[in-house]
Give the backbone structure.
Amino acid sequence: MEEALALLLARDVDLKVAGRTDAGVHARGQVASHQGTHAWRSALNGVLPRDVRALASRPAPEGFDARKDALARTYRYRVTNGAVPSVFEYRRALHWKYPIDRAALDTCAALVAGQHDFTAFTPTQSNHSRFERRVTRAQWVEEGREAVAFWIEADSFMRRMVRTLVGTMLAVAAGRMDVDTFAALLEGRPRSEAGDTVAGWGLYLESVEY
């Protein structure tokens, strides 16, 4: 995006981006800002690679910063379940071949909502100084016959937080961890006590609120 803007605006452009995404993560509602005049959406899409598209491009108030001014972000993590992985969901959703207890997923999601210490759900080697986050939505939603998606909205997120939450909830849903243990993790337990961090390709940055 910076290269496309530099080409169109004939100057270097430093983008401020609303949310970080690890390799493989998708962004359906990413927001980026930069100083100076804007480039039109049609012009941007004419020079961007096929897997990147600008949905809108417009002037913002002076001093607007896509990252610092964000009030909340919403992510979705998609999981398919069945004997055979769907070729149409390849690198678009995590295929989970183990049984899924939907009631357990829903119970875990209800526990995630609210303000908690998410130390257990971010890498031990971290630059974060504050591990509490306020989650305003945490919900598993059916997507067709074979897919479920975890939707989560919070004031901010830590590295790999959503992916580790999902991996740990799936461990509960498969009977590898009980709900009480999961609840205790939300009180600031060490990372080693939580579940695996699931693959990045099931995660989507859906939207950013200002």
